Amino acid sequence: MRNNIKYNALSIIIILSLMLGYVAYAEDTNTTNTSGTPTNNLEQRIQSIKDKRAEFKTEIEAIKEQTALKINEVKTNFKESLKNIKDENKKISAEKIVDIIQGLNTKRTDNLSAKIDKIENVLVSIESRIAKANSNGLDTSLVKIEVEKAKVAIAQARDAVSVQSKKVYSVNVTSEATLKSEMKNLRDTFSKDMKALNAVVKSAHEAVKNTATTLVKIPKIDEVISN
User: Fold this and answer.
1) For residues 85 and 174, what is the distance between their CA atoms, to the nearest angstrom?
2) Which of 20, 35, 56, 161 is deepest in the core (most CB within 10 A)?
3) Which pTM value belongs to this model?
Protein backbone atom coordinates (compact mmCIF):
# COMPACT_ATOMS: atom_id res chain seq x y z
CA MET A 1 0.00 0.00 0.00
CA ARG A 2 2.85 2.38 0.91
CA ASN A 3 4.61 1.82 -2.43
CA ASN A 4 1.37 2.45 -4.30
CA ILE A 5 0.95 5.78 -2.55
CA LYS A 6 4.46 6.85 -3.53
CA TYR A 7 3.90 5.67 -7.10
CA ASN A 8 0.69 7.66 -7.41
CA ALA A 9 2.28 10.74 -5.91
CA LEU A 10 5.16 10.53 -8.38
CA SER A 11 2.72 10.17 -11.25
CA ILE A 12 0.81 13.25 -10.12
CA ILE A 13 3.99 15.32 -9.76
CA ILE A 14 5.19 14.46 -13.26
CA ILE A 15 1.82 14.94 -14.92
CA LEU A 16 1.31 18.27 -13.13
CA SER A 17 4.74 19.43 -14.19
CA LEU A 18 3.80 18.53 -17.75
CA MET A 19 0.59 20.54 -17.51
CA LEU A 20 2.19 23.58 -15.90
CA GLY A 21 5.48 23.62 -17.77
CA TYR A 22 7.41 23.27 -14.51
CA VAL A 23 11.19 23.50 -14.91
CA ALA A 24 12.65 20.95 -12.54
CA TYR A 25 16.15 20.88 -13.97
CA ALA A 26 17.32 24.40 -13.08
CA GLU A 27 19.54 23.16 -10.27
CA ASP A 28 21.40 20.91 -12.69
CA THR A 29 22.53 23.86 -14.83
CA ASN A 30 24.62 25.33 -12.02
CA THR A 31 27.11 22.49 -11.74
CA THR A 32 30.14 22.97 -13.97
CA ASN A 33 33.80 22.16 -13.74
CA THR A 34 36.53 24.75 -13.27
CA SER A 35 36.70 25.47 -16.99
CA GLY A 36 33.02 26.38 -17.01
CA THR A 37 32.02 23.50 -19.30
CA PRO A 38 29.26 20.95 -18.65
CA THR A 39 30.35 18.00 -16.52
CA ASN A 40 27.77 15.40 -17.58
CA ASN A 41 25.44 14.39 -20.39
CA LEU A 42 22.41 16.07 -18.84
CA GLU A 43 24.18 19.40 -18.61
CA GLN A 44 25.34 19.01 -22.21
CA ARG A 45 21.74 18.32 -23.20
CA ILE A 46 20.54 21.45 -21.37
CA GLN A 47 23.22 23.57 -23.00
CA SER A 48 22.34 22.13 -26.40
CA ILE A 49 18.68 23.06 -25.84
CA LYS A 50 19.65 26.61 -24.87
CA ASP A 51 21.77 26.94 -28.01
CA LYS A 52 19.03 25.58 -30.26
CA ARG A 53 16.44 27.88 -28.71
CA ALA A 54 18.69 30.86 -29.31
CA GLU A 55 19.12 29.80 -32.95
CA PHE A 56 15.38 29.30 -33.32
CA LYS A 57 14.66 32.72 -31.81
CA THR A 58 17.07 34.33 -34.25
CA GLU A 59 15.44 32.44 -37.11
CA ILE A 60 11.95 33.54 -36.07
CA GLU A 61 13.02 37.17 -35.74
CA ALA A 62 14.44 37.04 -39.26
CA ILE A 63 11.21 35.48 -40.51
CA LYS A 64 9.18 38.25 -38.85
CA GLU A 65 11.24 40.90 -40.62
CA GLN A 66 10.79 39.20 -43.98
CA THR A 67 7.09 38.62 -43.31
CA ALA A 68 6.58 42.27 -42.37
CA LEU A 69 7.84 43.30 -45.81
CA LYS A 70 5.52 40.81 -47.47
CA ILE A 71 2.58 42.01 -45.37
CA ASN A 72 3.13 45.60 -46.50
CA GLU A 73 3.23 44.46 -50.11
CA VAL A 74 0.11 42.35 -49.70
CA LYS A 75 -1.74 45.22 -47.98
CA THR A 76 -0.95 47.49 -50.91
CA ASN A 77 -2.24 44.93 -53.40
CA PHE A 78 -5.28 44.23 -51.26
CA LYS A 79 -6.22 47.90 -51.06
CA GLU A 80 -5.85 48.12 -54.80
CA SER A 81 -8.23 45.19 -55.29
CA LEU A 82 -10.74 46.86 -52.94
CA LYS A 83 -11.20 49.64 -55.46
CA ASN A 84 -13.78 47.34 -57.01
CA ILE A 85 -15.88 47.73 -53.85
CA LYS A 86 -18.13 50.79 -53.66
CA ASP A 87 -19.36 50.28 -50.09
CA GLU A 88 -16.81 52.01 -47.82
CA ASN A 89 -17.93 50.06 -44.74
CA LYS A 90 -17.27 46.79 -46.53
CA LYS A 91 -13.81 48.00 -47.49
CA ILE A 92 -12.98 48.97 -43.91
CA SER A 93 -14.34 45.68 -42.59
CA ALA A 94 -12.34 43.64 -45.11
CA GLU A 95 -9.10 45.45 -44.25
CA LYS A 96 -9.70 44.91 -40.53
CA ILE A 97 -10.25 41.19 -41.06
CA VAL A 98 -6.95 40.85 -42.92
CA ASP A 99 -5.09 42.84 -40.23
CA ILE A 100 -6.66 40.82 -37.42
CA ILE A 101 -5.82 37.49 -39.04
CA GLN A 102 -2.21 38.44 -39.62
CA GLY A 103 -1.91 39.77 -36.07
CA LEU A 104 -3.41 36.58 -34.67
CA ASN A 105 -0.99 34.49 -36.69
CA THR A 106 1.96 36.28 -35.11
CA LYS A 107 0.50 36.12 -31.61
CA ARG A 108 -0.49 32.47 -31.77
CA THR A 109 2.77 31.27 -33.28
CA ASP A 110 4.65 33.14 -30.53
CA ASN A 111 2.42 31.56 -27.86
CA LEU A 112 2.82 28.07 -29.31
CA SER A 113 6.58 28.52 -29.52
CA ALA A 114 6.61 29.35 -25.80
CA LYS A 115 4.42 26.32 -25.12
CA ILE A 116 6.87 24.08 -26.96
CA ASP A 117 9.65 25.40 -24.73
CA LYS A 118 7.61 24.43 -21.66
CA ILE A 119 6.94 20.97 -23.07
CA GLU A 120 10.67 20.55 -23.70
CA ASN A 121 11.45 21.75 -20.17
CA VAL A 122 9.35 18.92 -18.81
CA LEU A 123 11.08 16.40 -21.05
CA VAL A 124 14.46 17.46 -19.66
CA SER A 125 13.04 17.19 -16.16
CA ILE A 126 12.03 13.63 -16.98
CA GLU A 127 15.48 12.94 -18.43
CA SER A 128 17.05 14.02 -15.14
CA ARG A 129 14.87 11.46 -13.36
CA ILE A 130 15.88 8.84 -15.91
CA ALA A 131 19.56 9.62 -15.25
CA LYS A 132 18.98 9.11 -11.53
CA ALA A 133 17.19 5.82 -12.19
CA ASN A 134 20.05 4.72 -14.42
CA SER A 135 22.64 5.48 -11.80
CA ASN A 136 20.66 3.29 -9.40
CA GLY A 137 20.72 0.32 -11.75
CA LEU A 138 17.11 0.45 -13.00
CA ASP A 139 16.20 -0.60 -16.54
CA THR A 140 15.27 2.60 -18.38
CA SER A 141 15.50 1.27 -21.95
CA LEU A 142 11.78 1.62 -22.70
CA VAL A 143 11.48 5.15 -21.40
CA LYS A 144 14.59 6.18 -23.35
CA ILE A 145 12.82 5.12 -26.54
CA GLU A 146 9.93 7.40 -25.61
CA VAL A 147 12.37 10.23 -24.93
CA GLU A 148 13.71 9.98 -28.48
CA LYS A 149 10.17 9.99 -29.87
CA ALA A 150 9.39 13.09 -27.82
CA LYS A 151 12.52 14.85 -29.11
CA VAL A 152 11.40 14.19 -32.70
CA ALA A 153 7.87 15.43 -31.94
CA ILE A 154 9.23 18.63 -30.36
CA ALA A 155 11.49 19.27 -33.37
CA GLN A 156 8.53 18.77 -35.71
CA ALA A 157 6.45 21.20 -33.67
CA ARG A 158 9.14 23.87 -33.91
CA ASP A 159 9.43 23.32 -37.67
CA ALA A 160 5.66 23.72 -37.98
CA VAL A 161 5.78 27.00 -36.03
CA SER A 162 8.52 28.25 -38.34
CA VAL A 163 6.48 27.39 -41.44
CA GLN A 164 3.33 29.01 -40.04
CA SER A 165 5.24 32.17 -39.09
CA LYS A 166 6.13 32.71 -42.75
CA LYS A 167 2.53 32.76 -43.92
CA VAL A 168 0.88 36.00 -45.02
CA TYR A 169 -2.90 36.12 -45.23
CA SER A 170 -4.75 38.15 -47.81
CA VAL A 171 -7.02 37.80 -50.80
CA ASN A 172 -7.43 39.39 -54.20
CA VAL A 173 -10.97 40.77 -54.23
CA THR A 174 -12.60 40.27 -57.60
CA SER A 175 -16.00 41.88 -57.07
CA GLU A 176 -18.39 43.14 -54.42
CA ALA A 177 -20.62 40.14 -55.07
CA THR A 178 -17.85 37.70 -54.11
CA LEU A 179 -16.29 39.75 -51.28
CA LYS A 180 -18.18 37.99 -48.49
CA SER A 181 -17.34 34.50 -49.69
CA GLU A 182 -13.71 35.44 -50.35
CA MET A 183 -13.29 36.81 -46.85
CA LYS A 184 -14.92 33.71 -45.40
CA ASN A 185 -12.50 31.52 -47.34
CA LEU A 186 -9.64 33.55 -45.93
CA ARG A 187 -10.85 33.09 -42.35
CA ASP A 188 -11.42 29.38 -42.97
CA THR A 189 -7.92 28.98 -44.38
CA PHE A 190 -6.37 30.61 -41.34
CA SER A 191 -8.52 28.53 -39.00
CA LYS A 192 -7.50 25.34 -40.81
CA ASP A 193 -3.80 26.27 -40.64
CA MET A 194 -3.96 26.99 -36.92
CA LYS A 195 -5.86 23.77 -36.25
CA ALA A 196 -3.11 21.84 -38.03
CA LEU A 197 -0.38 23.65 -36.08
CA ASN A 198 -2.14 23.06 -32.77
CA ALA A 199 -2.36 19.37 -33.61
CA VAL A 200 1.41 19.15 -34.16
CA VAL A 201 2.12 20.90 -30.85
CA LYS A 202 -0.40 18.64 -29.12
CA SER A 203 1.45 15.62 -30.54
CA ALA A 204 4.64 16.88 -28.88
CA HIS A 205 2.74 17.31 -25.61
CA GLU A 206 1.35 13.77 -25.86
CA ALA A 207 4.80 12.37 -26.66
CA VAL A 208 6.24 13.88 -23.48
CA LYS A 209 3.23 12.72 -21.51
CA ASN A 210 3.80 9.17 -22.80
CA THR A 211 7.42 9.46 -21.69
CA ALA A 212 6.30 10.45 -18.20
CA THR A 213 3.81 7.61 -17.90
CA THR A 214 6.41 5.12 -19.16
CA LEU A 215 8.86 6.39 -16.54
CA VAL A 216 6.50 5.88 -13.61
CA LYS A 217 5.86 2.29 -14.70
CA ILE A 218 9.47 1.30 -14.05
CA PRO A 219 9.60 -1.01 -11.01
CA LYS A 220 10.97 0.74 -7.88
CA ILE A 221 11.23 4.08 -9.70
CA ASP A 222 9.25 5.75 -6.92
CA GLU A 223 11.77 4.63 -4.29
CA VAL A 224 14.76 5.80 -6.32
CA ILE A 225 13.40 9.26 -7.21
CA SER A 226 11.91 9.86 -3.77
CA ASN A 227 15.29 9.36 -2.10
Assistant:
1) 9
2) 161
3) 0.77
